[in-house]
Amino acid sequence: MVQSLALTASLWLIALLPLATSSFYDNPEVELPQKSGTPLDELEAKFGTDWGFTGISTFAHLKHIKCLTTPYEQFDIGIIGAPFDTAVSYRPGARFGPRAIRAASARQTSFRGFNHRAGINPYQSWPHILDCGDIPVTPFDNALALHQMTSAYTELVSRQPLSYTNPPSHTHPKLISLGGDHSIALAALRALEKVHKRPIAVLHFDAHLDTWHPGSYPSAWANTPTQADFTHGTMFWVASEEGLIANGSSVHAGLRTRLGGNDFADYDNDERQGFLRIEADDIDAVGVSGIIELIMSRIGTETPVYLSVDIDVIDPGLAPGTGTPEAGGWTTRELIGILRGIEMLNVVGADIVEVAPAYDGMGETTALAGAQVAYEILTSMVKRGLKDRGEEVILTKPGTQKILAQGKKKARKDEL
Ligand SMILES: [Mn+2]
């Protein structure tokens, strides 16, 4: 008995011996990956991939180049910040929108960028996509700021894109602007009308009209033309006056603003500018697919469109970090659903505006929505390009058939 106890004890000792000499921090010896390619390839393989939380903040970890000062760096789609917010009527702060959206896009990476709703990864497809940095824009003089933004936008869209004419319609680089307040859209429209040599249709997601007459704020000076005519609620009125917007093929979606006075005069004024108005409440009657149908039948797939998303189209419960919040908006999921449904529009430029992080929730709620909207728009630009290049990839989601079949079975049961 004593003998067997001693034996057990010594066996335990032998078993514990390796633990006594090694520590928790010892890993098995690292096996070096097989060498392949140049030394640069090696470095890229070892250290090239960022985690969501590493790296300097650019949109989706895209390569950052200050495109405005590097005309020799050709690109196809550029993300550009327009940190301008001195044309707001209520809460300022959207000048910090670009950096908030970039930070909130950190979990978008090229290696995990496959859009399961669209069936493509926009970061691993035909276009060369850059984070072009920000437009340096003055916060002290709105007339100068508008000039700076217009000349910056014009500078970039006048260049030749890397994938020039492949797809055929890709004759100018496309920009997705991160606002900034909504007034930045005027600069984009001026530049786009110039290079496309025609008025551009505007698809405008917003709680508000933004086609307001500059004199609609009651003031003794309302009829004096000043810099005050240019605001985040009048830029489409100014654009209409300048003939930049395609009258008859433009759309507002998600409206729920109060109107001026005691009648529908604001709608009459909007009517003259040729917008179709889809109100936030309309989704209850026609659903996401009905909203998509309304937009697509109005604009079609050929008209060049500027897609402008004011983040306040989303309910302030889900996107509180914005300048002029209005209760009763769409959910983030509904907006994503609508954006996916209009993916075959001919989008020539886009923006995501009015993200004001100072009023945002603890978890970057609004900025996350903004980053997702940018990703969906980017996906659509890339997917439309794929189709036009004849490289359309239609991927079927594994399991989809099963779910559809189950749905059918359930429907039959309900009938019985
Ligand atoms: Mn707006």
TrEMBL record:
Keywords: Hydrolase, Metal-binding, Signal. Residues 1-22 form the signal peptide. Pfam families: Arginase. Belongs to the arginase family. Agmatinase subfamily. This is Agmatinase. It comes from Exophiala sideris.
